[in-house]
Amino acid sequence: MKTAKKIILLIIIAVMASCQYGGRNELPAELIGSWETSNPRYTDRLLSFTDDEIHFGIGKGQVAIYTITKVKSSDLGHQTIKYVIHYKNQDNDDFIFAFAYNSAHNGSIMIDHQEGIWRKTAAGETK
Question: Which residue range is the domain that position 28 belongs to?
Answer without folding.
Answer: 24-120
